[in-house]
Amino acid sequence: MKPALASFYLDDDENLWVHPWAASGQRLDVFDPHGRFLGAVRLPFVLSAYPEPIIRRGHIYGVVRDELDVPFVVAAHIEKR
Question: On the CB side of 44, how many CA atoms lie within 13 Å of its CA?
Answer without folding.
Answer: 6
